[in-house]
Amino acid sequence: MSVTETTVDGIPTLFARREDGQYAGGIVFRVGWADETLAVRGLTHLVEHLALHGVAARDVHHNGETHALHTHLYASGTAEQVVRVLNGVCAALCDLPVDRLETEKEVLRAEARGRGGAGSSMAGMRHGARGHGLSSYAELGLANVDAGLTVMWANEAFSRDNAVLWLSGESMPEGLSLTLPEGERQSLPPVTDVLGPTPAYYLDGSEDVVHVTAVVPRSCRAMLFTELLSRALFADLRQRDGLGYSASATYRVRDAEHAVVAVVADCLPERRGAAVGAVVDTLARLRWGSVPADELEEVRAAALAAVATSRTLPHTGLPARALEMLLGREPDDPAVLEDELRAVTADDVRAAAEDFHATALAQVPELGLEWAGWAAAPVSSDTAVDGTGYASLAADGPTLVVGDDGLTLRSDRGRSTVHFDRVAAMLAYADGGRSLLGEDGFHVAVEPTLLALDEDVVARIDAAVDPARVVRRPAREAASLPRPAGHSPEAAGPPAGQGAGEPLAPSSPLLRRLWRAARGR
Amino acid sequence: MSSPVPPPRFDLAESFPETGEPAARAAQDLPGALALLTARRPRGGAEYGVALDALAAADGLDEPLDRHLAEHPDDTEARVVRAARVVRRAWELRGTEPGAQVGAERFDAFFALLARAEQDLVRVVVAEPADTAAWGLRLSTARGLALGTSEAGRRWRHLRAADAHDVRAQREYLQHLTPKWGGDWGRVDAFVGEVTAAAAPGSAEWALVPYAALTRWYDDHRAEGTSAMRWPEVVTGLDAAEQSFLAAPTPSRYEAVLAHTDFAVALGLAGKRGRSAAHFAQLGPSLAPGTWALGADHRSDLENIRASALAEGRRR
């Protein structure tokens, strides 16, 4: 059995026969939240929700998922049910039920509340408030999104030329009518880096968890390394040291060339330091310790079994293969994959551990990691603007400098600078407060209740910031406005990164059009 | 006319010349010296520890060790020696002043040296998880780097799993448990109780009782004279520990120096001059420098006890 490539209504299509009587199908689009800007963060997710709303069918298993680089809408059941969902999704994408817009925004807000944010600041620390870094940020752009923008995004990004369809069943199902607009395959958003030297760490005492991520070349050795690391973390932190409940590592494809390996280890509050130390030691064990032959063989056997499954049940790998097509990567040949897996040696695992170490970023609840030779990730801007200074209304609060090119907020603990031409988003509250998030992840809050501002300061800032980056917010209740005591720029903002590099141009033709459109509105 | 009292001999390698053999050989033959050191296993055992100290203090070994490790990166023995040298240099650089008197620059250099040692030590313990010498050094680096009692406890448990009776490591871990390093005296007492509950008669581990009492007195009460060393609960503890310590010969001559020094100083400060003198007499010229330093302003009194003990010994 194998996978057949064909075309349905102009959409590249993968079909795999299956003999269990079931049908399944999905459409994968090459658009995700990494294609958005912070000012419209949530737009893709909103389109996904609207696309599925119209086809709600309680008798069919169906769902939608929005990821960094792709959005996946899928269903399973009988041939008729799958066809009904896919046809409905495409019809909805062509004629979005925008009367549902505000309701779906509420649904998305509720979904976000339930999702939580453990470890979520890591991508922002690495990439800033753009591209892959946007996963660290709430869908705050939803407030900005109106029907026109949503329809335009759907037309541009959810086109047949930016999609791959996959289907599985006894035969190609009849009755598909997948009318999608013509378009173009979206280029990938640039991968930004605001982190500086790695391995790096930052402190976040808000949770009893150690997180470590690294960006590694996609490879069999990295996959087996991740499995061995996961086992080692569980064995060391939970079984041997009893430091916490869960400790594991996962391997997630990021794009055609790279994967993200992510470590998560929770701990008891009083064992934070030990958890940090144990994670350091376990990572070192994979770099320099012995790789037990039996463990390597076990994880290899599991990986080979997964390849064997994809051979005998090719439909199980269809969504991943559709994504690979959209990412521009040739599908893996199972025979080649098996050969590569069989060839991985203990030295290869150690080399993969070195790859991991070289780009690692850790979030630790205490201690930091300078003692282990890791660099402190930047938590203070490396640039400042010249301009007019505004004192804090509190005795020791941060002061604001407003320049022609940006803002700098200074406190005893450091400074945050946002340049006007690098604003990822500015929250503009009707009460006069402004919160500027730079593309490098730094944040400056301009609060009339905290600073002795001139009357025209806010107007000057508004005039300097690209309207496409402004998110309008209603006035906050008087009781929830910030007060001078106990406020600090670092405590208030989302993850901070380092101000570096060139201003990021809109990352794709799609976004360039979006910017132009937003400016014109 | 009586002969002068011999000056204290703090260097154990001087008292026990065989432990200085690896250091003596290292300049000419580093691999041979490392082999001699390895022969003094078990790692962390007293003789090994003394020999390692001597290598840590020897001149001119940094470059040879770097070269050796560049050629033999998996030589954990060489890595332990290099780390021990860096840890020693770090603490020498820091000095013994209170933290507030150590400038930021010196602290930065101190931390950088300890972090450098950590790089070698973590590599040793992942290759040889039962290397108690490396874990013992990691207790020292953890204290200097202020990694806190949680991480120190993890390191101690690793060490204990390999050797629960490592006297030097016990002392290092006890320091972590003091208020000065983030612990409290209740945890110190519990730890001393845990160690002595498993200690054999004659073991130097019994000296953890006077060592803890001296540490507490030094940290909290030395400005008040020696009265805190005479509190009934302190004296009762010293009495019982001394009795157990003297109940059998101490297996390690090197650890005996530590233990007798602890008892000599603690009992001296507690006003038990006769029993203090007996321990000084056992020590002869040898003294453990760390505990001797804890005698603080009372060292001249302790020197008198020591002098009389050694003079008495010579008259016999």
Description:
Chain A has helices spanning 43-53, 79-94, 101-115, 122-127, 147-157, 220-240, 272-288, 293-312, 318-327, 334-343, 346-358, 457-464, 489-492, 509-520; strands at residues 3-8, 11-17, 23-29, 61-66, 71-77, 163-169, 200-203, 209-217, 247-253, 258-266, 361-364, 375-376, 388-390, 399-402, 406-411, 414-419, 423-429, 434-438, 443-446, 470-473. In chain A, a hairpin with a 4-residue loop joins strand 18 and strand 19. Chain A has 3 domains: 3-122 and 129-169, Cytochrome Bc1 Complex, Chain A, domain 1, CATH 3.30.830; 200-376, Cytochrome Bc1 Complex, Chain A, domain 1; 388-503, PH-domain like (Roll). By secondary structure, chain A is an alpha+beta fold. A 6-stranded mixed β-sheet of chain A has the order 1-2-6-3-5-4, sandwiched between helices. The radius of gyration of chain A is 25 Å and the shape is flat. Chain B is an all-alpha fold and 316 residues long. Chain B folds into 2 domains: 1-165, Alpha Horseshoe (Serine Threonine Protein Phosphatase 5, Tetratricopeptide repeat); 184-316. Chain B contains 17 helices and no strands. The longest helix of chain B has 24 residues, at 104-127. The radius of gyration of chain B is 20 Å and the shape is globular. Chain A binds chain B through residues 241, 243, 270-274, 276-278, 280-281, 284-285, 287-290, 366-367, 370-373, and chain B through 111, 114-115, 118-119, 122-123, 125-127, 141-142, 145, 147-151, 153-155, 157.
